[in-house]
Amino acid sequence: MNQQQGPAMIEAVGLAKYYGDFAAIEDVTFSIPQGQVVAFLGPNGAGKSTTMKVLTGYLAPSRGVARIAGHDMAVDRLAGSARLGYLPENGPLYPDMTPRTLLEFFADARGLTAQRKRQRIEAVVELCALGSVIGKAIGKLSKGYRQRVGMAQVLLHEPDVLILDEPTAGLDPNQIREVRDTIRTLGRNKTILLSTHILQEVEAIASRVLFINEGRLVYDGPVSGLTADGRGLDTHFQELTTQNS
Fold first, then answer.
1. Residue 102 contacts residue 149 (beta carbons within 8 Å)
2. DSSP symbol at 176
3. pLDDT at position 153 over 70
4. Cα–Cα nearest to 179, from 209, 204, 159, 199
5. What phi and psi, each to the nearest 5 degrees, are found at residue 232?
6. Of residues 230 and 112, which shows the higher confidence score?
């Protein structure tokens, strides 16, 4: 399924990544159009994080092409990164900084003007509900607030594309709900690819599912395609995980 609604904002064309004789991913191909929220599922070690790192330009593919907003991330990474917000799992934060000083640091690194910096920091602090902790050391914050700081940093330069690797990992149910609401709001006008182990999130947030197992895509289609038969996503997860074993 590709139901192209607009220009392709995330593209994987025959992506492969090898470590010696081991293929972390093999022949991964998909295209995500503007304004679509897609869940990326698969068991641990299936290739989700590797695919995301190749898409963002963090890793070079052994074969194939990764594009963000039309930019080949192997040869035009800076232009692609300007359109991209990437939140890795357990993304690095500076514990001695406050959310405000961290956001100011990244705004300066991205070359935002003084006026633009003020506007964007104010906007992401409000969106991610950081006002009550804006002056506290990040190292003293809860996991939920640290994840919000990471999300605020990702959104600072108003990217068109978001790639989120396990954005709710380690959060409690209330924190998960808050992050889910934020992603749902962002999905109204951004292209989002997110990996998750929480299957309830898929139905709550995404319209489409990519499922990877043993480094290969084994399903690309609507969420409804995995629930129309009345069985739960967990049942299909188990079947797709074992069908190639």
1. yes
2. H
3. yes
4. 204
5. -80, 165
6. 112
